[in-house]
C-alpha cells in the first residue's frame, strides 16, 4: 500500500472516476430531433428525469392545425414574457411563428439535442412543432436577481453608488455606460464542464497590449474545471503565483474602478453569477489606490496615499518591532520610555512574543467573528471584545498596557488599506515577522523585510512585473504612487500595463494658472 | 543571436548592480585601511583608485563590444577556443564564490558581534540564506530589480552621517599631502579591493538592454562607488582625530555613536540591521553569477541546482570554520589576485 495514500481523498466503489462531463454523451449531443412531436417529447422526458420544474405546454397552431409543445424551466424563464409574448400570439394565430407572431427579441432555430438541452437549462424556452426537423428557440430568460446596490466591500464617499451584481449582462451594461466607445471589446469564453460559466474578457482594443491579453485568454481557455462559482476561484486558477500570500490580480465590485482601470490599459474579466470582477495586470501599488483618491483634492489624496503606505509597514512590522525592542534591542528606545514599558511589563508573566501572539490571535478571531455573524449578533462581539481586550485583560495582569496599544494601532493600520485580499496577505506576513523578531530581534525583522521585498519583486501579474514602479523603477509611473499627482499632470498611461497608446490626454493646464 | 533576451536589465539596474556590489562591506572598512596607509590624506588614493578603475572598466567594455550578444566566456570560446572559455569561467566561479563567501561571513560576524551576541553564528547564516535563495533563484532580472530597490531605499544613509556634523572638525584634514605623494601612491593598490566589484560588469554586459549606454553606465556606476567611499572616508576623517582613525575598528559604525534622537536612543543598532540590505548586495548577485559561470561550464540552463548546492556548502562549512575579519581580508586579497591574473591572461590574448 502506498505510504501517502491517506493524503488523497478516499475512493468509494460507487463513485465514478471519470472527469465531469456534459450531461449528454458526445454522440447524443449532435443527434438531430425527430419529425414526430410525440417522439421528441418522449426523448425530452428521458433526458430530463427528476426535473419537476420543467413545464411542457402543448398547443395547437390555429393557422395550420399543427401540434406544438413549448418547453421551459419554471423559475429560470420570465413568466410574463412567455404568457404575453409567446403563448398569447401563437394562440391568436396570425402569420408564421418566426416572422410575426412571437414578440420576443431573440429567436433562433435548433436542430440538435445538445444545443436544445443547453438552451432549456439556461432559461430559454424551446418550441417543438410536429412535422418539423427544427425547434424554435425563444429568448425568454428571466431569473431571480437583485437590484443594483452600493458595493458592500469597497465603500466610497464620492464614487458612484452602483456596484456590480450577479449577472454579467448587467455588469457589461454598467461598464459600457462609462465607456460608450466602439473600441471597448468583449471576448466570451465558456468555462466549466458542469457550470458552463460565461467569462467575459473586456478590454479597449487600441490601448490594451495584445500580448498581455493573449496571456490572459490562454490561461482562461486552458481551464478544465467543474464550475466557477465565484470570481475569486477564477483568480486563483489563473494567477501567476498561487503560493504567494498576496493577490496578483485586483478584484473589485465597483464599475467606476473597473472602467478607470480599463482606460489605463488593463483588462477586466467578468464572471457571470459573481458580483466582483478581475482586473489585471495589477501592480503592488494598485492595492493602495482607491477610487476616491481621484475625486478628492490631489494634495489630500497624496497625504492619504502616504498614510496607506505607512500603515502597510505598521501593519506588518509594529508587533514584531515591539517584540524585538522589548526582548533584544533595548538600546534603541529612550531610557524614559524603556522604564515605562518595564513598569507595565513587570507584572506580566509572559514573554513579549507570547503576549503579542495571544493578542493578535484574539484580534483576528474577533474580526472573523464580526464578519461571519449576522449584524444584530455582530454587535455583541464588539462589546465583548472591547471589554476583554480593553481593560479587563490588563487589570488581570495578563497583558501589558503597551501591548494593547500596539495591537490596536496595528489593527487600525490594517483597516486603512483599501483592498481586503491584500490586507489578508499582510496579516499572515505579520505573524511570520513576529516569529522572526522573537528569534533574532531587529535583525529578524530586516531579514523578513528582505525576503518580503525579494518575494514582491519576483512576483508577476499576467507576465508583467508586480513590483513596478518601484522595482523595476519606472519614474513616470510614480505620479500615481506615494503622490497622486494633479490629474492634468498624468498625461501618460502607466508603463506597467504596457499600453499600446501611451498618451491619455492632451494639455489640460488650468487657464487661470497665471500665464 | 540574442541568447539572453529574456533576462535583459536596464541601464539603471546595471549601474545599481555594480555599485551595490562594490560598495557593500568595503564601506565599513575602507576608512581604517586608508588611515593606516596614508594617514589623513587617505581620501586621495580613493580618488586615484576610482579613476584607474574607470579607465580599466571602459577598456573592458570596448573589448566586449566586439561580441555584444555573448558573455566573456562565449567571446573567448569564439576567438580562442572552448578551453580558454572554461578556464576563465572557472576563475570567475572561484572568484565570485570567494567574494560572496567573504560577504556573507563578514555580515554574520558583524551582526553577531554587534546585534546578536548570544545567537549562534550558524543560525544567523541560515536566516540570511532565506532571502538569498528567494532572490537569487529567480534570475538576473529579479536581482537587477532588487539591486535597484536596495540602492534606492539606502539613500537615507548619507543623511544620517550628515547628522553627525556637530562633531566634525575639517581641520583634521590639513595639511594636505603633509608627507608627500609617497604614502598616497602606495595606498592606491589597497583601494582596489573596494572597486573590484567592477568585474561583474563584464558578466552583465550581454544582458544590458541598450549596449550603447554601457560605457556611460560603467562610468556612472564607478563614479557612485567612488563618491560613496570618498564620502565615508571624509566623514570619518573629520569626525575622528588622525590617531583615532587608525585605531578604531569599523569607524563607519563608530561615528554614528554621536547621534542622539529623542525617539531613538542609539541609531547604530538600527543602522546595522538595515545595512544588511546593502551587505546582501555583496553576496546575492555574486552567488548568482557564480552559479551562472558554473552552469556555463557544465553547459546547463538551470542555475538553481548549483545555487542550492553552494548555499548548503556555505552553511555546512560554517559548522567547522568561522573566519575572523583578518582572515576575510586575506581572502578578499586572494580573490583580487585572481582577477589580476585573469586580466593579465586576457591581455596576452588580445
From TrEMBL, chain A:
<keyword id="KW-0812">Transmembrane</keyword>
<keyword id="KW-0472">Membrane</keyword>
<protein>
    <submittedName>
        <fullName>Spore germination protein</fullName>
    </submittedName>
</protein>
<dbReference type="InterPro" id="IPR050768">
    <property type="entry name" value="UPF0353/GerABKA_families"/>
</dbReference>
<dbReference type="Pfam" id="PF03323">
    <property type="entry name" value="GerA"/>
</dbReference>
<comment type="similarity">
    <text>Belongs to the GerABKA family.</text>
</comment>
<feature type="transmembrane region" description="Helical">
    <location>
        <begin position="306"/>
        <end position="324"/>
    </location>
</feature>
<feature type="transmembrane region" description="Helical">
    <location>
        <begin position="375"/>
        <end position="393"/>
    </location>
</feature>
<feature type="transmembrane region" description="Helical">
    <location>
        <begin position="429"/>
        <end position="452"/>
    </location>
</feature>
<keyword id="KW-1133">Transmembrane helix</keyword>
<feature type="transmembrane region" description="Helical">
    <location>
        <begin position="399"/>
        <end position="417"/>
    </location>
</feature>
<dbReference type="InterPro" id="IPR004995">
    <property type="entry name" value="Spore_Ger"/>
</dbReference>
<dbReference type="GO" id="GO:0009847">
    <property type="term" value="P:spore germination"/>
</dbReference>
<dbReference type="GO" id="GO:0016020">
    <property type="term" value="C:membrane"/>
</dbReference>
From TrEMBL, chain B:
<feature type="transmembrane region" description="Helical">
    <location>
        <begin position="115"/>
        <end position="134"/>
    </location>
</feature>
<dbReference type="GO" id="GO:0016020">
    <property type="term" value="C:membrane"/>
</dbReference>
<keyword id="KW-0309">Germination</keyword>
<keyword id="KW-0472">Membrane</keyword>
<keyword id="KW-1133">Transmembrane helix</keyword>
<comment type="similarity">
    <text>Belongs to the amino acid-polyamine-organocation (APC) superfamily. Spore germination protein (SGP) (TC 2.A.3.9) family.</text>
</comment>
<feature type="transmembrane region" description="Helical">
    <location>
        <begin position="12"/>
        <end position="30"/>
    </location>
</feature>
<dbReference type="InterPro" id="IPR004761">
    <property type="entry name" value="Spore_GerAB"/>
</dbReference>
<feature type="transmembrane region" description="Helical">
    <location>
        <begin position="272"/>
        <end position="298"/>
    </location>
</feature>
<feature type="transmembrane region" description="Helical">
    <location>
        <begin position="305"/>
        <end position="322"/>
    </location>
</feature>
<keyword id="KW-0812">Transmembrane</keyword>
<feature type="transmembrane region" description="Helical">
    <location>
        <begin position="42"/>
        <end position="63"/>
    </location>
</feature>
<feature type="transmembrane region" description="Helical">
    <location>
        <begin position="83"/>
        <end position="109"/>
    </location>
</feature>
<keyword id="KW-0813">Transport</keyword>
<dbReference type="Pfam" id="PF03845">
    <property type="entry name" value="Spore_permease"/>
</dbReference>
<feature type="transmembrane region" description="Helical">
    <location>
        <begin position="146"/>
        <end position="164"/>
    </location>
</feature>
<dbReference type="GO" id="GO:0009847">
    <property type="term" value="P:spore germination"/>
</dbReference>
<feature type="transmembrane region" description="Helical">
    <location>
        <begin position="184"/>
        <end position="205"/>
    </location>
</feature>
<feature type="transmembrane region" description="Helical">
    <location>
        <begin position="217"/>
        <end position="240"/>
    </location>
</feature>
<protein>
    <submittedName>
        <fullName>Spore germination protein (Amino acid permease)</fullName>
    </submittedName>
</protein>
Amino acid at each position: 500500500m502506498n505510504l501517502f495514500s491517506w493524503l488523497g481523498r478516499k475512493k468509494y466503489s460507487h463513485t465514478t472516476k471519470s472527469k465531469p462531463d456534459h450531461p449528454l454523451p458526445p454522440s447524443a449531443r449532435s443527434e438531430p430531433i425527430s419529425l414526430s412531436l410525440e417522439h421528441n417529447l418522449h426523448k425530452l422526458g428521458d433526458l430530463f428525469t427528476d426535473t419537476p420544474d420543467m413545464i411542457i405546454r402543448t398547443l395547437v397552431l390555429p393557422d395550420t392545425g399543427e401540434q406544438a409543445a413549448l418547453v421551459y424551466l419554471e423559475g429560470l424563464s420570465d413568466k410574463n414574457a412567455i404568457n404575453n409574448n409567446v403563448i398569447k400570439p401563437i394562440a391568436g394565430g396570425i402569420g408564421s411563428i418566426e416572422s410575426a407572431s412571437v414578440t420576443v427579441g431573440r429567436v433562433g432555430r435548433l436542430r440538435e439535442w445538445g444545443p436544445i438541452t443547453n438552451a432549456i437549462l439556461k432559461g430559454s424556452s424551446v418550441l417543438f412543432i410536429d412535422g418539423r426537423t427544427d425547434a424554435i428557440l425563444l429568448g425568454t430568460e428571466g431569473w431571480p436577481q437583485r437590484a443594483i446596490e452600493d458595493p458592500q466591500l469597497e465603500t466610497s464617499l464620492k464614487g458612484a453608488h452602483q456596484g456590480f451584481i450577479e449577472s454579467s449582462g448587467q455588469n457589461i451594461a454598467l461598464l459600457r455606460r462609462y465607456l460608450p466607445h466602439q473600441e471597448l471589446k468583449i471576448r466570451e469564453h465558456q468555462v466549466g464542464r458542469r457550470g458552463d460559466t460565461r467569462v467575459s474578457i473586456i478590454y479597449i482594443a487600441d490601448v490594451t497590449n495584445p500580448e498581455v491579453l493573449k496571456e490572459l485568454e490562454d490561461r482562461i481557455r486552458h481551464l478544465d474545471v467543474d464550475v466557477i462559482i465565484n470570481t475569486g476561484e477564477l483568480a486563483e486558477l489563473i494567477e501567476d503565483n498561487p503560493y504567494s500570500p498576496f493577490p496578483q490580480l485586483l478584484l473589485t465590485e465597483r464599475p467606476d474602478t473597473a472602467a478607470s482601470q480599463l482606460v489605463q490599459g488593463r483588462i477586466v474579466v467578468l464572471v457571470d453569477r459573481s458580483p466582483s470582477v478581475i482586473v489585471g495586470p495589477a501592480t503592488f501599488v494598485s492595492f493602495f489606490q482607491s477610487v476616491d483618491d481621484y475625486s478628492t483634492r490631489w494634495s489630500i489624496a497624496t497625504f492619504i496615499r502616504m498614510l496607506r503606505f505607512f500603515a502597510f509597514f505598521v501593519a506588518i512590522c509594529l508587533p514584531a518591532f515591539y517584540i524585538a525592542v522589548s526582548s533584544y534591542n533595548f538600546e534603541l528606545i529612550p531610557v524614559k520610555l524603556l522604564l515605562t514599558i518595564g513598569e507595565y511589563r513587570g507584572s506580566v508573566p509572559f514573554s513579549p512574543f507570547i503576549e503579542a501572539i495571544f493578542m493578535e490571535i484574539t484580534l483576528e478571531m474577533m474580526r472573523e467573528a464580526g464578519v461571519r455573524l449576522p449584524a444584530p449578533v455582530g454587535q455583541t462581539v464588539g462589546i465583548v471584545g472591547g471589554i476583554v481586550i480593553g481593560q479587563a485583560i490588563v487589570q488581570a495582569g495578563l497583558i501589558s498596557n503597551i501591548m494593547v496599544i500596539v495591537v490596536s494601532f496595528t489593527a487600525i493600520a490594517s483597516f486603512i488599506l483599501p483592498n481586503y485580499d491584500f490586507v489578508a496577505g499582510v496579516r499572515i506576513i505579520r505573524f511570520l515577522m513576529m516569529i522572526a523578531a522573537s528569534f533574532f530581534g531587529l535583525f529578524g525583522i530586516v531579514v523578513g523585510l528582505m525576503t518580503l521585498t525579494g518575494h514582491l519583486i519576483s512576483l508577476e501579474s499576467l507576465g508583467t512585473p508586480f513590483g513596478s514602479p518601484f522595482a523595476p523603477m519606472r519614474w513616470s509611473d510614480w505620479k500615481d504612487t506615494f503622490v497622486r499627482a494633479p490629474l492634468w499632470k498624468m498625461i501618460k498611461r502607466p508603463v506597467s500595463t504596457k499600453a499600446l497608446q501611451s498618451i491619455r490626454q492632451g494639455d489640460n493646464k488650468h487657464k487661470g494658472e497665471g500665464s | 543571436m540574442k541568447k539572453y533576451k529574456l533576462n535583459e536589465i536596464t541601464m539603471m539596474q546595471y549601474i545599481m548592480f555594480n555599485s551595490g556590489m562594490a560598495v557593500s562591506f568595503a564601506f565599513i572598512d575602507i576608512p581604517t585601511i586608508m588611515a593606516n596607509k596614508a594617514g589623513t590624506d587617505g581620501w586621495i588614493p580613493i580618488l586615484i583608485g576610482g579613476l584607474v578603475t574607470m579607465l580599466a572598466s571602459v577598456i573592458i567594455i570596448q573589448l566586449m563590444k566586439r561580441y555584444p550578444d555573448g558573455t566573456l566566456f562565449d567571446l573567448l570560446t569564439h576567438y580562442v577556443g572552448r578551453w580558454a572559455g572554461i578556464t576563465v569561467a572557472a576563475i570567475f566561479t572561484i572568484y565570485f564564490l570567494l567574494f560572496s563567501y567573504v560577504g556573507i561571513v563578514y555580515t554574520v560576524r558583524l551582526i553577531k558581534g554587534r546585534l546578536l551576541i548570544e545567537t549562534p553564528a550558524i543560525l544567523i547564516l541560515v536566516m540570511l540564506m532565506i532571502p538569498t535563495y528567494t532572490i537569487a533563484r529567480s534570475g538576473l532580472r529579479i536581482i537587477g530589480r532588487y539591486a535597484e530597490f536596495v540602492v534606492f531605499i539606502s539613500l537615507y544613509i548619507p543623511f544620517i552621517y550628515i547628522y553627525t556634523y556637530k562633531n566634525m572638525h575639517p581641520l583634521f584634514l590639513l595639511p594636505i599631502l603633509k608627507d608627500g605623494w609617497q604614502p598616497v601612491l602606495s595606498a592606491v593598490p589597497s583601494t582596489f579591493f573596494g572597486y573590484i566589484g567592477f568585474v561583474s560588469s563584464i558578466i552583465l554586459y550581454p544582458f544590458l538592454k541598450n549596449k550603447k549606454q554601457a560605457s556611460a553606465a560603467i562610468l556612472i556606476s564607478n563614479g557612485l562607488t567612488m563618491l560613496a567611499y570618498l564620502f565615508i572616508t571624509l566623514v570619518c576623517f573629520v569626525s575622528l582625530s588622525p590617531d583615532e582613525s587608525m585605531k578604531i575598528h569599523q569607524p563607519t559604525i563608530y561615528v554614528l555613536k554621536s547621534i542622539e534622537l529623542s525617539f531613538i536612543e542609539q541609531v547604530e543598532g538600527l543602522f546595522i540591521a538595515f545595512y544588511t540590505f546593502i551587505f546582501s548586495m555583496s553576496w546575492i548577485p555574486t552567488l548568482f553569477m557564480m552559479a551562472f559561470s558554473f552552469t556555463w561550464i557544465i553547459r546547463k540552463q538551470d542555475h538553481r541546482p548549483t545555487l542550492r548546492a553552494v548555499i548548503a556548502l556555505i552553511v555546512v562549512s560554517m559548522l567547522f570554520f568561522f573566519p575572523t575579519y583578518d582572515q576575510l581580508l586575506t581572502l578578499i586579497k586572494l580573490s583580487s589576485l585572481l582577477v589580476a591574473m585573469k586580466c593579465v591572461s586576457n591581455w596576452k590574448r588580445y
